[in-house]
Each structure stands twice: as C-alpha cells, then as structure tokens.
Amino acid sequence: xxxxxxxxxxxxxxxxxxxxxxxxxxxxxxxxxxxxxxxxxxxxxxxxxxxxxxxxxxxxxxxxxxxxxxxxxxxxxxxxxxxxxxxxxxxxxxxxxxxxxxxxxxxxxxxxxxxxxxxxxxxxxxxxxxxxxxxxxxxxxxxxxxxxxxxxxxxxxxxxxxxxxxxxxxxxxxxxxxxxxxxxxxxxxxxxxxxxxxxxxxxxxxxxxxxxxxxxxxxxxxxxxxxxxxxxxxxxxxxxxxxxxxxxxxxxxxxxxxxxxxxxxxxxxxxxxxxxxxxxxxxxxxxxxxxxxxxxxxxxxxxxxxxxxxxxxxxxxxxxxxxxxxxxxxxxxxxxxxxxxxxxxxxxxxxxxxxxxxxxxxxxxxxxxxxxxxxxxxxxxxxxxxxxxxxxxxxxxxxxxxxxxxxxxxxxxxxxxxxxxxxxxxxxxxxxxxxxxxxxxxxxxxxxxxxxxxxxxxxx
Length: 460
What we know:
- The chain is α+β, with helices and mostly antiparallel strands.
- It has 3 domains: 2-46 and 199-288 and 400-457, no CATH class; 47-195; 292-351 and 360-398, no CATH class.
- 21% of the residues lie in helices and 51% in strands.
- The strands form 7 sheets. Strands 4, 15, 16, 17, 18 and 19 form a 6-stranded mixed sheet that branches. Strands 5, 6, 7, 8, 11 and 12 form a 6-stranded antiparallel sheet that branches. Strands 21-22-23-24-25-26 form a 6-stranded antiparallel sheet.
- The longest helix is centred in the middle third of the chain and has 26 residues, at 170-195.
C-alpha cells in the first residue's frame, strides 16, 4: 500500500466538501471530492494575575487626586491630594471577579476660623481603598474591566491639630473619598484597557499560521492554514491566573510540492466572538492510496482456485486469474475462469469501509453489462447472482496498516512547530477509516483521527 500523509485540519461550522488533487507520479491526477469535517483548534489563554497586577501598578499615576481650592465643592474649605502609598494588591479571585486593595497617602488642608482668626492647618494620613473588578474581553481583543468601589479602611485617622485643639476630619474626608471612588475605579479600568490587549498576539498567530509548513518531507507535502474566525470563552479565575480558551476556525489546504508563498501581513482580523465553550476535540483527515496492483495481489490471494457451482452442480467454474481496475466510481474485477465457462467475466462493485470487518469491501456488486450480453448467449446460468454475492461476501482489503500509519502520521503532525514561537501539541483519541474513493491510479481511503490539539503561542 502507498501512503500519502496529506493532513486535513478542517475547522468550520458547516460541513462542506473539499477538492484534492495529488500531484505525485504514483498518485492520481484527477481531483477527488471529500466531505470536510467540522472542528476547531484551541489556544489556551492564561493571564497571570501577578502580571496583571504589575501592569496596573506600572500604568497608574502616583498622584491620583488633587483639589487645590478651598472654594470649590460648595465651598467646602478643603484642599486635598491623594497619592498611592504602595502597590495595588489583589486579595481574591472568584470566577471573573477579582478584589483588591490600594494603599493611599492623603494630604488634607482645612480652612477654619477660631475666635475670628482664619487658619489653614494641614495633616497627612493613610487609608486603604477596596475595589472589585469584573473581567472580560471585548470584540476588539481588549481586556475590559467593570470596577466598583467597595469602601475603605483607615490606616491612620485624619486629625487636624491647631494649638491645643484636635479637629477630627474623618466624616469630611470619608465623604470626599466615597464621592471619588467611582473616579478612582474609572482610572483603574482605563489603565487596564490602555495596557492590556490580546490583539497583537492573535494578529501574529493569524499572520504566521498562513505560512505553509512541511508535514511530510518524504512526499514533500505541505499544509497551509487559512484562518477565518476567532472565538473566546469567558475568563475565569483559576489559581493565580485568569484562564480562557481562544478558538480559531480555519480551513486547511494540503499541497504536494513546494508551495509558492507571498507573505501578506494583515492588520485587520475579525472581531472576537464570545461563546460559552469551545470543543477540545477535532478531526483530522489522512489520505492513503492503495494501488491497483496491490489490490490485485490481495484479491488473487483470496480468489485464485475458488470454485463455484450453478444449477445444483450442473455447471462449475474455477477462477484462474483476477485483476482490479477503476470503473468510474466503482471497482472493476476482471476474473478469468475455466470449467463450464472459459473466458473473462467483468464484475463491478462500489467500495466502502466495513467497520466490523475492518476492511474495504464491495457493495452493489453486479455483472458488467457487456458480460451480461455475452452470458445471455454463452452461459445464462451465470446470471443467477451466485458469483456476484460470493465475491462481494469474500472480497476485502485490510486497513490495519492504514490505521497504524494514520495514527503515527497524525501524532507527528499535531506535535510539531508551525513556526518559531507557535507550536501544535496534541493527543489522539481514536483513528478509524472513513471514506473510500476510486481514483485513476488507486483506491483512496481517508482515515479520520479524533484528537485534542492546542496551539501554543509563546508569550500569550
């Protein structure tokens, strides 16, 4: 048997058909049509919460609030400045919601009148703000947060000292902080949006994946991916990370012979679509050719010397030779016999895969019309159907080699590096033969491998 490791990774929502032309000296030159198998390739997305925390801290300004007038805010007689007094620190992560704290240092100056004398004492104190952010990813590949203030805790309470008098500012400062929690939360949301986007990673994977990569050096077989859509599942906290799965829907073209490649770096990719789950299992088609000489050899081992009786033993024939050829979508079996009928009998049958026998077998087996015309005159007793049924029941081309070869070829392909920084990693669940087609130079049998495959992108 001649094997051609032509791997088809078909990723599409609707099943369709693909046309394959195998340009090899030992392979068929006519295009064959095979049904495409819908599936998807997944990219595990893991965002380190620590990395996210560092990016927020790097992007947030130190001075986050400033009020330089005693007369604004309904003449509240208060000036204030608020700085970060350390880094934002995440405290918990549940599903897509993360809570965190931000330590702040506050300078406050209050204009007061004591005994008709106006004074403006100042104080410095510390507080800790509390927030929660719901994380998501927008259609433009940005990380989006919806942040809400959860209140604050005093670290040191604000007290103004003027002479021997202490004036507590807790209620006034507390109201100021509470009124500005939404503004602080908005600052955090903007910082995350400005500093975190998945688009550069997906765009790089999108452009890189379109460069053909070598699937089989022996047969100079190349695989070219054509991505068409991108999906993502909701972000969820897991340990010290936010995790999701990106799914890329794409078509794959298999080429024999070194392909021409003109790199086109696109800048616009389809909007990201959010879906609840992405299947981890997809299917790979592997094409295998059984030459007619090999099919003939196997058939001879089954049928040479076989004897058939007709009309309760009145007529007997013995098969002395057999040859397998193509006849459109059918296999033609040219049998040479001796005995009551000496000559050639032409039969044809439609090849299919029988999962119980694990063989390519014949269905719809019948005598060729030319043979029928001859037999009407020379041997009408051969028309009773015994010969066709006997050959149909016993004919079989074993495919165990196809299954094993398919498994090894698929494993090799789905555990390879497409390009620097982009690797495929996978495991196989099952490998079974699928469709059978008759071509010019052999019988093409497709093997379907069900596998789990991840596309690992360095740095994502």
